[in-house]
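Morning. Coffee machine broken again, so started the prediction first thing and wrote up yesterday's gels while waiting. Chain of 373 residues, entered below exactly as on the submission form.
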Amino acid sequence: MKKSLLALAALSAFAGAASAQSSVTLSGSVDLGLRRVGVVAGTATSSDWRMAGSQSGYNNFTLSGVEDLGGGSRAFFALNHRFTLNNGVDNGYSNGGGGGGAEPFWRQTWVGLGGGFGDVRLGRMLMPLQDMNGGFDPFATGTVGSTHTGGIDATIRSNNTIYYRSPSLGGLSAHLAISAAEGQVQNEIGGTATAPQNYNGRASLLNSQRPTGLNVRYAAGPVNVGVAYDKNAEDMKTTGVYGSFALASGLKFMGQFEKGDNYTNTGATGVAENIKAFSLGLTAPMGPVVLRTGFLKIKSDLANRDASKFGLGADYNLSKRTNLYTTVGKWAGNRFANPKLTTANTTASLAAAALTAEATKKAQFDFGVTHRF
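Came back before lunch.
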């Protein structure tokens, strides 16, 4: 009897240890509020005020798991999905469409192995430049106040990707990624495999260019600085420099600078454009309140293609997981009045562009609530 009890206890202990070696976690956030979007009176657009989230990936959930393989090694995976909370609609991409797509886990999906060497991920994920730059926007790339430089035309998420992340060596780390050339146009650039919207006038590049990227970061104490590079599936290149410094009071200063290529239309021919974008931002915690402000400037080597934006906002933290927010954002400049700059523009497309520009220049405002789980 005693031997049976001992054996049962040992088996239970072994089962408990085995189950503790692997786990699956559900995490994410939900966000919703009211937003003044800046539509033009008298147009077909429904309303200047809408119920909406904060313009970023705040409405999402992630299924992630990790297994301890022993010897400091681990296996892990993540399935990340975005949706719209006010109507429950999938907010993914279907052959390049922006919303209502068919892919249930379009945002990021990967499996990987990690250890003392760092880790390697395989799947669909943010490329290194976009993986870095969001952390240097005072609005965390969300709300209408965001002054995020946006990556110019850097790859956002790339399919069929191999991604390596080094360990941190005294605060210094590096990320490198490369993707297959095929299978990119449907998900990030638009169109389908058989109708790729002329690939911004560069259809000959379809399925021939491998998205690649890297970043190098130094993060230790109050200092966080980094550089990044990206080449997308249209052979357009973007480089970025980022930095932030936090004071003991919690006040944090941050900045972004990016320089990249752009093609300004999806007509028969593309118009080359060189863009520089920089932003300065500040976050200031004051008890449960966090104040946020930033300024963004976009400069082009083409005429009438510059823009600037000012953002201001505040969060009120009800708990560690839940906060209220309100922000205001105001654009200026001519960039949105000249989206294509080609003789192929029709009267209708120019009129639509003018309305878009008028709407964008109106001050935007939002307030809402975010809960993280």
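Residues 26-372 form a domain with the Porin fold (CATH 2.40.160.10). Going to sketch it on the whiteboard this afternoon.
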